[in-house]
């Protein structure tokens, strides 16, 4: 017996042994379903930048987002359905121009809604030392938050 992709396989001794793996077993991915219907209301129509993207800093990682995107980040301790504002915008761009922050773009904010609090796919860690017969396998399932990006807003910075 040996293992391929976590499935036990029995060898028949011949080179032409077949292996039946369904696509569901091979490419199992978790489907995320929204737990609440969200009504996105935009009060600041004049400040919304249309057809734009933003690079936001969230949980030690950077995400390139546009309006309507669904992203999965590390756990944020906020209730499902809540509205959050991501103010660490590193870059903001459209087809015509790009604003790069030093380090942040002044007056840029991204509105997001918490869609789901769930678990991310399992992470497996395999440690091995060669020629020492030492092997350890550990695994954990990280907690995750699913966010839906609302509006990307650029407010004019205050004039001095």
From TrEMBL:
<protein>
    <recommendedName>
        <fullName>Large ribosomal subunit protein bL21m</fullName>
    </recommendedName>
</protein>
<dbReference type="InterPro" id="IPR036164">
    <property type="entry name" value="bL21-like_sf"/>
</dbReference>
<dbReference type="GO" id="GO:0006412">
    <property type="term" value="P:translation"/>
</dbReference>
<dbReference type="InterPro" id="IPR001787">
    <property type="entry name" value="Ribosomal_bL21"/>
</dbReference>
<dbReference type="GO" id="GO:0003723">
    <property type="term" value="F:RNA binding"/>
</dbReference>
<keyword id="KW-0687">Ribonucleoprotein</keyword>
<keyword id="KW-0689">Ribosomal protein</keyword>
<dbReference type="Pfam" id="PF00829">
    <property type="entry name" value="Ribosomal_L21p"/>
</dbReference>
<dbReference type="GO" id="GO:0003735">
    <property type="term" value="F:structural constituent of ribosome"/>
</dbReference>
<dbReference type="InterPro" id="IPR028909">
    <property type="entry name" value="bL21-like"/>
</dbReference>
<dbReference type="GO" id="GO:0005762">
    <property type="term" value="C:mitochondrial large ribosomal subunit"/>
</dbReference>
<comment type="similarity">
    <text>Belongs to the bacterial ribosomal protein bL21 family.</text>
</comment>
């Amino acid at each position: 017996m040996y293992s391929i992709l976590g499935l036990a396989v029995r060898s028949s001794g011949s080179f032409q042994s077949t292996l039946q793996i369904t696509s569901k077993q091979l490419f199992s991915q978790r489907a995320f379903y929204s737990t609440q219907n969200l009504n996105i209301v935009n009060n600041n129509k004049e400040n919304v930048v249309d057809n734009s993207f933003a690079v936001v800093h969230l949980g030690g990682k950077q995400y390139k987002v546009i309006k309507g995107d669904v992203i999965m980040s590390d756990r944020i301790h906020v209730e499902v359905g809540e509205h959050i504002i991501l103010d660490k915008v590193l870059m903001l761009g459209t087809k015509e121009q790009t604003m790069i922050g030093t380090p942040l773009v002044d007056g840029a904010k991204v509105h997001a809604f918490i869609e789901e609090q769930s678990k991310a796919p399992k992470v497996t860690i395999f440690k091995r030392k060669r020629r020492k017969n030492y092997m350890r396998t550990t695994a954990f399932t990280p907690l995750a938050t699913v966010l839906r990006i609302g509006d990307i807003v650029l407010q004019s910075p205050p004039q001095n």
